[in-house]
Design brief:
Elements (H helix, E strand, L loop, with lengths): L4 H11 L25 H6 L9 H22 L7 H10 L3 E2 L7 E5 L4 E10 L3 E9 L11 E8 H6 L3 E3 L13 H23 L11 H16 L14 H6 L12 H12 L14 H13 L10 H9 L2
Antiparallel strand pairs: 1-6, 2-3, 2-6, 3-4, 4-5
Helix pairs in contact: 1-3, 6-7, 6-9, 7-9
Length: 323
């Protein structure tokens, strides 16, 4: 079984800005009833008996609980609930899952010279730095425990390792990885210019640059083509409006495509899937075949959509919102 790291990171990002409360009131609100009494929705959902306690580890437990359910959280964290930094460090170290170099999805535990005392989730890694989302912390360049908020922070990797901070790696299983689809995008841009060049020129004032980069102009061209075809099915989608608006959403269900579909909607979908990093092939047609279905399923899995290999209303909306 595999557990989506993307789901966990997306969930964590949505929590940034949450402030601890001075009482049990307004626990679901990010900012109402803010105080310094350590009351949070995280303790309410993980272990209400500990409400009012320090909550950096509880925040991590809550993320895993919401992303994967109780059994998934218990499996990935090696125990339940995770409420003590030193305990989880010892469990992951004993399991051979403690590292000095981070990956996205790792749990970082911070060392204060005598014990592990604070924690966060790794949401970004570069050559020299790593980015976290932490509960019960605050803004600033240093590690801040009991800071009262969910914040996004960045640290220098070499300094963190030298300080004794470590990275714990749950066994998430195989992850869906995005591909380099630049050649497919370039093929798509070329065909879009060949078959829809005048249409694109009319509304965008220039044809697509065939550079293999699926930027704003390629996305806008895909939307133009989609609207042109949707109109044939009764859609009221103004080509001059550069967004997937209400008119598009109303007709999207009638623009469903799946295996063996053969129409311009498939061509549009292939461009969007390539732009998102899920479709890399040597030619781009209007035929919905096995590779297209596989790309759709990977995309749906990655973005927590219903995995059916069919591009219907919700998948169209997501593709145009986040290609």
């Amino acid at each position: 079984m595999s557990y989506s790291i993307h789901r966990l990171v997306t969930l964590a990002q949505k929590e940034v800005g949450y402030l601890e409360k001075k009482s049990n009131a307004h626990l679901n609100s990010k900012t109402k009833n803010a105080g310094d009494r350590n009351y949070t929705k995280y303790w309410r959902d993980v272990d209400p008996s500990l409400q009012g306690s320090y909550w950096c580890a509880c925040f991590i437990s809550w993320l895993f609980l919401k992303a994967y359910g109780l059994e998934g959280a218990r499996t990935l964290l090696l125990h339940w609930p995770y409420i003590t930094c030193q305990v989880i460090y010892e469990k992951f170290k004993a399991a051979g899952r403690c590292f000095c170099s981070p990956k996205v999805g790792d749990i970082v535990v911070f060392f204060n010279g005598s014990r592990m005392y604070h924690t966060g989730l790794i949401v970004g890694v570069s050559k020299e730095r790593f980015t976290t989302i932490e509960g019960n912390s605050s803004d600033g360049s240093s590690v801040i425990a009991n800071g009262g908020a969910v914040v996004k922070k960045s640290y220098a990797l070499n300094e963190a390792v030298a300080a004794g901070h470590r990275f714990l790696r749950p066994k998430y299983g195989k992850q869906i990885k995005k591909k380099d689809c630049s050649k497919t995008i370039q093929l798509w841009q070329k065909r879009a210019n060949q078959e829809y060049g005048e249409w694109i020129l009319k509304y965008q004032k220039e044809r697509l640059e065939e550079d293999g980069i699926f930027g704003e102009k390629s996305l806008a061209a895909a939307l133009l083509i989609w609207k042109k075809e949707a109109k044939k099915r009764g859609g009221v989608c103004r080509p001059s409006v550069n967004r997937f608006g209400l008119g598009c959403k109303r007709i999207a269900g009638k623009c469903q495509i799946q295996t063996d579909s053969d129409n311009p909607f498939v061509f549009v979908a292939k461009g969007l899937l390539a732009g998102a990093g899920f479709y890399s092939v040597r030619s781009v047609s209007c035929r919905f075949a096995e590779k297209t279905e596989a790309a759709v399923k990977n995309y749906q899995t990655y973005y927590d959509l219903e995995v059916d290999g069919i591009i219907g209303k919700k998948t169209w909306e997501k593709l145009f919102a986040n290609p």
